[in-house]
């Protein structure tokens, strides 16, 4: 009980020492800065306008998938209605395409398919972009795949399609359940996968599709950073032996989902859409069906990008903590508790309003932001708070070790914030940026990441695109390791507290090196 009371008294003493007007104002500036920068960032977005002849109209909003995430949903579609029970079976006999201006010379259009060009069969909840779907396809370089609702991908056989090796595809619907199967000869079938699409209506659209995403190439800067560029591509697939079961009597309809036909290649060489001849459907399309990765593009910003003010707030917290550590005092553990707790609360106050308000503001301005589960939002808010707390303890320990705030502050900022800025700005090669966010305390900024890397989407998955090499918990552990190590060093170097058994302080003459001489009584009178 006495030990608890003594610990409480020490914490109160250190809190009273921290609670100066200057420090309180500085620590209050942390959440104010993060909130102000985040809201200014959100209000800076605009849906913009597009020309419709002589009239300027709002640009179409980006499609949003069933889970609220921004998606790509552009392809050529030949379709018919399908009921609650039924199937489609086709034979895909050929697949070819073009790639415009690929490296190394960027001076010609070549034949070929990008790795995730895709053609096959699809069951879709209507014709609107972002609606639920399940598709079975052959890809440019990844064999047969079954994909549904943009983010789900299951691999089938690794073979593609060639002149002497067609591929049979079948999708079977039983209410909300879609099953995909493939065959080399149309007799022996292999199941690829099953998708469940909750809320699928009684009548859906079923048919053939073709799509081809942009060809990603990387341009190197002077220091070796990668800047992505996307080039137009197109895929053309030939289908025959088309059989439908459970579909009402109706003709085929052909249309483009999303915007196609706007490039010179499409206008003057091969237009998107369907060519039918003697029971063979030849379908040409571009675009993609899948999630939009973070880092811009048609999906807009992510929720984590609204926390753009966190590095600035971290710098303020580092300065306050380093000055507090360099001001002296033996109760370093208590000081670390005070500064860590204060920075944690400041982080909660900073991240909470931004995470809740900024995405809503961006959406209100006509720009889509990927929806994030409530638990993920809570994890980000707590993660930012833990990031600031760990960084503050590290700076406090450096201040106590060096005994000078002017020396501790630049070291703390260079260890925590500078690597993050160098990694996320397109300055250095991607692998250098990844290592900066693996081995330095800046790894803890991974707590802000909210989106995933999708193998079925070709993109620049690098720190400059908003992707961290470590999961959030591992990045936070790296910072905590540095903070604990620095605090242990500072505690070992701190002077020992005075012993209670030593008694009162010795007289001044004793501290100078010898005992004090006893006073002698003076003599009175004369002899």
From TrEMBL:
Taxonomic placement: Bacteria, Bacillati, Actinomycetota, Actinomycetes, Streptosporangiales
Name of protein: DUF1349 domain-containing protein
Keywords: Membrane, Transmembrane, Transmembrane helix
Chain segments carrying region Disordered: 496-527
Signal peptide as annotated in the record: none
Transmembrane feature ranges: 22-43, 307-326, 338-362, 382-402, 409-428, 470-491
């Amino acid at each position: 009980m006495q030990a608890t009371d003594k610990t409480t008294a020490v914490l109160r003493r250190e809190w009273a020492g921290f609670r100066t007007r200057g420090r309180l104002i500085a620590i209050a500036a942390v959440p104010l800065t993060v909130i102000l920068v985040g809201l200014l960032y959100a209000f800076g977005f605009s849906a913009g306008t597009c020309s419709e002849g002589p009239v300027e109209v709002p640009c179409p909003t980006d499609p949003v998938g069933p889970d609220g995430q921004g998606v790509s949903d552009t392809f050529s579609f030949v379709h018919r209605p399908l009921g609650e029970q039924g199937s489609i079976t086709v034979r895909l006999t050929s697949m070819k395409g073009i790639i415009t201006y690929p490296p190394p010379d960027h001076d010609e259009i070549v034949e070929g398919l990008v790795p995730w060009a895709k053609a096959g069969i699809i069951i879709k909840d209507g014709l609107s972009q972002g609606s639920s779907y399940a598709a079975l396809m052959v890809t440019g370089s990844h064999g047969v795949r079954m994909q549904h609702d943009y983010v789900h991908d299951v691999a089938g056989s690794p073979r593609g399609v060639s002149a002497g090796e067609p591929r049979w595809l079948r999708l079977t619907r039983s209410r909300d359940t879609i099953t995909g199967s493939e065959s080399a000869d149309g007799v022996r079938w292999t199941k690829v996968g099953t998708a469940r699409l909750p809320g699928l209506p009684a009548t859906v659209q079923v048919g053939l599709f073709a799509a081809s995403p942009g060809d990603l190439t990387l341009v190197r800067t002077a220091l070796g950073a990668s800047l992505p560029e996307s080039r137009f591509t197109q895929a053309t697939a030939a289908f025959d032996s088309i059989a439908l079961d459970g579909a009402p009597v109706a003709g085929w309809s052909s249309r483009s989902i999303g915007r196609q036909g706007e490039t010179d290649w499409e206008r003057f060489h091969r237009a998107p859409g369907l060519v039918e001849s003697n029971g063979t459907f030849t379908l040409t399309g571009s675009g993609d069906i899948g999630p939009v990765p973070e880092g811009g593009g048609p999906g807009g910003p992510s929720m984590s990008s609204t926390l753009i003010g966190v590095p600035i707030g971290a710098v303020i917290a580092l300065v306050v903590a380093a000055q507090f550590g360099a001001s002296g005092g033996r109760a370093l553990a208590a000081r670390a508790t005070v500064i860590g707790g204060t920075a944690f609360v400041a982080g909660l106050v900073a991240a909470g309003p931004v995470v809740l308000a900024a995405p809503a503001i961006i959406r209100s301005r006509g720009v889509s932001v990927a929806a994030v589960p409530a638990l993920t939002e809570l994890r980000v808010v707590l993660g930012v708070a833990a990031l600031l707390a760990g960084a503050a303890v590290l700076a406090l320990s450096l201040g106590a070790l060096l005994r000078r705030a002017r020396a501790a502050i630049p070291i703390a900022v260079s260890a925590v914030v500078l690597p993050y800025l160098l990694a996320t700005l397109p300055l250095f090669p991607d692998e250098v940026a990844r290592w900066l966010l693996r081995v330095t305390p800046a790894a803890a900024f991974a707590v802000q990441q909210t989106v995933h890397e999708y193998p079925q989407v070709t993109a620049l998955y690098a720190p400059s695109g908003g992707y961290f090499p470590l999961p959030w918990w591992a990045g936070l552990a790296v910072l905590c390791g540095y903070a604990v190590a620095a605090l242990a060093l500072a505690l070992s170097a701190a002077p020992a507290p005075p012993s209670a058994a030593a008694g009162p302080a010795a007289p001044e003459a004793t501290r100078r090196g010898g005992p004090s001489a006893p006073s002698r009584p003076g003599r009175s009178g004369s002899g």
